[in-house]
């Protein structure tokens, strides 16, 4: 059944049009004016056949994407990936080691659940923007905006995989 969901997953462009992608990029940019963390959003319609064959979970794929996109490569070790796998209806957040002992998995999961609730409402862009705002609220206390802080180390534009 999972194979079929991934094979026939709707295209990301159909699900998130250019206006929605621009809105998401603006939300990331706005959030990063409130903290020194770095947020990266990546969305994928379905897994590649090799990942499906290996039984890769959405979490494992998110960790792979985190590494591939270099989200870990920030001066403060404060990069965070928001990953959406459309075919599995899964949202994952992968945070760099700078968040260890600061933000726990349950807090990140709550941000994911906020997005999931919004997605069920049929407004994907609004749901993702709300999730970015929830993530910013978790990031800001630990990586407050500093003058001359290293901002825009990662691209704010959503990544379609």
Automatic annotation (TrEMBL):
One matching Pfam family is: TPM_phosphatase
Query: Which intervals hold domain TPM?
Result: 16-137
> Its domain of life?
Bacteria
Q: What is this protein called?
A: TPM domain-containing protein
């Amino acid at each position: 059944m999972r194979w079929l969901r991934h094979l026939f997953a709707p295209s990301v462009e159909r699900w998130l049009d250019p206006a929605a992608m621009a809105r998401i990029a603006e939300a990331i940019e706005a959030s990063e004016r409130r903290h020194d963390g770095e947020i990266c959003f990546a969305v994928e319609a379905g897994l590649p056949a090799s990942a499906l064959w290996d039984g890769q979970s959405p979490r494992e794929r998110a960790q792979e994407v985190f590494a591939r996109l270099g989200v870990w490569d920030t001066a403060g070790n404060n990069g965070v990936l928001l990953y959406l796998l459309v075919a599995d209806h899964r949202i994952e957040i992968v945070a760099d080691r700078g968040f260890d002992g600061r933000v726990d998995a349950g807090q990140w999961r709550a941000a994911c659940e906020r997005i999931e609730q919004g997605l069920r409402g049929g407004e994907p862009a609004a749901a993702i923007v709300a999730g970015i705002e929830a993530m910013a609220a978790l990031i800001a206390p630990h990586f407050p905006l500093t003058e001359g802080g290293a901002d825009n180390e990662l691209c704010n534009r959503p990544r379609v995989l």
